[in-house]
Amino acid sequence: EKINSRPRSTMGPRVLLVACCFALLSKAVAQNVLGIDFGSEYIKLAVVQRSAGVQIVLNEATKRKSPNALSFGETQREFGDTAMVKPHLAITHTRELLGKSARAELVKIYGPHYFPFEIIPDEERGAVKIKESDRFLSPEVLVAMVLTYAKSLAQAQTKEKVADCVITVPTFFRQFERQAMLDAAAIAGLNVLSLMNDHTAVALKYGTDNNVAELKEPQNVLFYDMGSTATRVSLVQFSSIPDKESFDKNKTLGQLKVLAVAWDETLGGNAFTEVVQEMLKAKSKKDPTNNFRALAKLGVAADKAKVILSANKEAHPSIESFIDDYDFRASITRAEFEENSRTLLKRVVRPVDEVLLAANMSVESLSKVEMIGAGWRVPKVQEILLAHTKRPILDKTMNGDEAFCFGAALYAASLSTAFRLRKFGVHDITQFPVSIDFETGVADSPVEEDEAKDDAKSDEPAPAATDKKNIKLFKIGHKIPAKRLLSFKRDEDLTFTMKYDGELPAGTPNIIAQYNITGVPAAIARYPNASKPKISVSFRLTRSGLVDVDRAEAALEEMVEVEVCRYVKANASNATLNATNSSNTTESSSAETDKDSANATEKDAVKGEDAADKKVEEVKVCSMKQEKRVHRVSLRIVAEAPVIKPFNASQIRAAKTVLEGYDERENKIRERASAFNALESYIYVTKEKLESNEDLIAVTTKEFRETFTEQLTKMNGWLEEDGWNADTATLKEKLSELTSVGDSAFWRSKEMIERPDIVKKAKEMTLQTDAALVNISKERSWLNKSHIEVVSNKTQALREWLENMTAAQEAHPAHEAPLFTKDDIVRRVMSVDEAMKALLRIRRPAPPPPPPYKKSDSKSKSKDKKNATTTPSEDSGSAGSEKPNSPADGEQSPAPPSEDGEAGNSSTPKEELR
């Protein structure tokens, strides 16, 4: 697939552009976008490139997914598979700590299992932090480290900078978790175009793969996603809609509409792994409860045993040196596993029932039940779902591991200005109702106004009485993105609290933020004669699922006296003025009236009928009038998170400094390790070649080899004793000492090996040049001998030089610098080549132009011809001495000259007479 990269046209808020058909355009912006599936256990990446389409990003081990893990070693951090080499030191499931307080239920669940460091409350922000060595790190910083690692993988594969991205988040992520993910991305230097609900990413990938634009009837698909930590079930309707922007009336587009979503935050693959882990723990002769390293080993063994039980009826896990010298071995059966998982299995279908109830549908209305994730591979889970959905099979047409990052990458491409993609409608919804509470002092009820035709409407009625202090902003199922505008008649500043309605998990705060809208008294003072101001507050539900206040302003109405002017006809103006100033007017005398009448009659007599066509003179008439003026004043918005505070700008800069410190330290460590390895490798390789490499022995003396070998041995002794503590500069200096001695010998060896082949090719080139010159002299006759001799002489000189230098080099000692090098040969060959190119650039000379056409001569001959025809008696005269006459009327001009310079008719006047 190729991507069409041109700035996309502006579409409606309901339309999303997705990649199905890609074509490169020349005026595109050179930019790649990244889709990140930031899972709890694994991280998957897909990058969109203009030249390569959508591709999965591979890690250093060429794997298509990497563990979402990092560890802090003695000298540097490790990520992904490398971090999991020592699972007891690896920090995993960092996503579960984002936006959480220390009292959150998930922190209590995951803390003891997945975090080898102490989790303590962050009193300043209301969140948590982890103590690493002598510093405290927030979950945002830990996630930023993993995102930086992900970005480096993408840039290593594309060989280009990657900054714009879309990150998937669980549907149940609320304001705090989503904001924390955005903060982490900002620390990592990523530009998040949007966060994307994971169920929407999967549905988008399904829609683009199945060509839903050709559907005749809507299709209801239930996506069952059991991941490592949670289970999410979404019901999505796919359908086709007419393309209103196409000239083809029959053209349709695909669209998806999320109908309902339900989830279980603690029912996932890890929950079943913990069941196996507890079973193995009970079979162990030694208790690993207080041994984090042993617990980590037991967790790895339990996960492998769970996978084995998915395909077999029993498993035999074993752990060498489980605790001290104790080797653990056990045997468990699938029946035992299912019996111990009874409580979990009862929860498998609960989200399915919730989704169908919310969408007012039955299982018979489902077109497909798509299984994604990895937890559903437990046989009993599939058996329960088959029975509950009354289906013969469960659909498994999607790659459950990669569908999320592919959908995120397509969404990122649609939001980027670097790509123009096929249109696909996407309708996502929010899962948490949001409202605002007003503190005491609100005098008037707010009035809801439409801010956007498609966005602002809400089914929640505005309060009708002054005692209602709660307003519903966005209910469950409200489309994303959206806006809502509320207005208040109020003469003082406004304060309200934004919160989530309904039940939330234990330890999760329901207050999102407290807002203070200030500047109302100042606006009133600025316009003291205005009426009571109307405060308009715009609320926004972003595509990332965040709710905030977009803007606030005060509108003050004031009646002002303004001058209104208009133009009227002169007589109408006089009538108006007479009516206005009737007390000051007097009647004109009859004499004056008669005089004016006579003058008018005389003027009309002079002008006649033209006077009727003249426009009547108009005059400007002004008067004072009361007019309403509306003054709009922007108000200041101050938001404060009273429970879990997001990162501010200074904290993000400080966190970036922390990451830069880690990067700088690790870069220095990698640079020193590279210098150490280079020195060590040079010593071993060179000593071996001095002893056994025949080419190197041939260009060196025995004395040189013995001396250099001794120097290498001494350097190796220094490296083993003092080299471990040497810095990078010292290691590079030691390597330079050795290369200054050995490089010349290696160079002579390389010259001796490669020079004969270059000499052979140069001689072949001289023969080819001689043959080419023979052909050129035959085919290009316009070339003179001197042109060809320039190339021929250079070729002969090169041939003689090669013969002489080769003979001299054979007699020259091999351990000394060669008399000529392969570079010398290349330079002389290039000289001959340039001479040949100059010869071939000489073009055939252009043919001589024909004699110019002389018009005067032609006219003279034509005149002579005419005179000879009409006056035969003058045939013996010298007509050529007379001035030529122009052709008479009706006569043709002389014919153009022929190739010999004469006129078209070659006969002379005398011949015509005869």
Keywords:
about 900 residues, alpha+beta, Nucleotidyltransferase, domain 5, Actin, Chain A, domain 4, Substrate Binding Domain Of DNAk, Chain A, domain 1, seven-stranded mixed β-sheet, six-stranded mixed β-sheet, disordered N terminus, Hsp_70_fam, nucleotide-binding, ATP binding
Report on this structure.
One of its GO terms (cellular component) is endoplasmic reticulum chaperone complex. The protein is 40% helix and 24% strand. It has 23 helices and 33 strands. Strands 1, 14, 15, 16, 21, 22 and 26 form a 7-stranded mixed beta sheet that branches. It is extended. Mean pLDDT is 82; it is low at 1-30, 440-444, 450-466, 577-614 and 868-914.
Count of separate DSSP helical elements: 23
Shape, principal axes of CA atoms: extended
Cα gyration radius (Å): 46 Å
> What is the structural class?
alpha+beta
Contiguous runs where pLDDT drops below 50 for at least 5 residues: 1-30, 440-444, 450-466, 577-614, 868-914
Distance between the termini: 86 Å
Tell me what the CATH architecture of the largest domain is: 2-Layer Sandwich
- The total number of structural domains is 5
- CATH C-level class of the largest domain is Alpha Beta
How much of the sequence is in beta strands? 15-25%
Nearest-integer average pLDDT: 82
Count all strands and give the number.
33
Main sheet characteristics? 7 strands, mixed
Q: The CATH topology of the largest domain is what?
A: Nucleotidyltransferase, domain 5
